[in-house]
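step: validate -> pass
step: tokenize input -> pass
step: predict -> running
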Amino acid sequence: MQNWIIVLLRNVILFFLTLGIMRIIGRGNISKVTPFKFVSYIVIGIMVSLISLRLITNFAFAFVALGVWVLFSLVLDYLSVKSKWVHDFVNGRETVLIKDGKVMEENLMEARYTGEELLRELRAKNAFNLADVEFAVMETTGDINVLLKSDKKPITPKDLGKQVAPCSQPETVILDGNILDESLLNRGLSRQWLKAELSNAGVSLDNVFIAQVDSSGDLFIDIFDDAIQVTQPKVKEMLYANISKAQADILSFSLETGDLETRKMYLNNANKLKKVMDDLEPYLLH
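step: predict -> pass
step: emit ->
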């Protein structure tokens, strides 16, 4: 067999072997892994490269060494899940950098962080003023998570005593001009509904790059031609507006009629619709 065929087959096998190894032990963002895992990935990659380039002549020894690194990485991952002690020994522990608004200088030195580096990381978390920070911790991946003081946190609907509709993951129903039927079924929608919405928006299917449906049924459309502005459908707002109009019409009827019983009926129904509007407002307008 010719040498180039041997090289080709060996590298194809190593390619899929490496892919399988990374699928098993390499789940997650590489920038979020611990230093030990990062070193493990590098060692495995170097071993595969050496085998691929035939810089290691004894392939049996090479695959034994590769197998040891892969096997031990898997074993340590399993033991880390089962034992907090093993997890802390392999991956390290988080380091508190700021506690009760005060910088922990000893922990900062232990993490080999300068004051400027700490301020830079805080700015990356939108904490530009050190006095606004209540708590900051360095995770084992090197990331820094920040907790702002109570009076510096952004106001939420809960703080204002308002209810908001629960949100779920939007479904992508069109991608590159192709309708994704499975996503439509997940929302209980059909192609006919989708085509009708596109028609109402004045957009053709072949000009749609991405279209998504959120949990409330609103369709967001992004088209290939960025110069064209697409009016996004407002299903919730339109529904609330129709209910509000019906309530106003009934209230108007009550003022126009001279019959007391009829007026009482209109007012009663108008009050019921007003209660429905109040109940639906957090879900339709927020």
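step: describe -> Residues 47 and 66 are 7 Å apart (CA to CA).
step: cleanup -> pass
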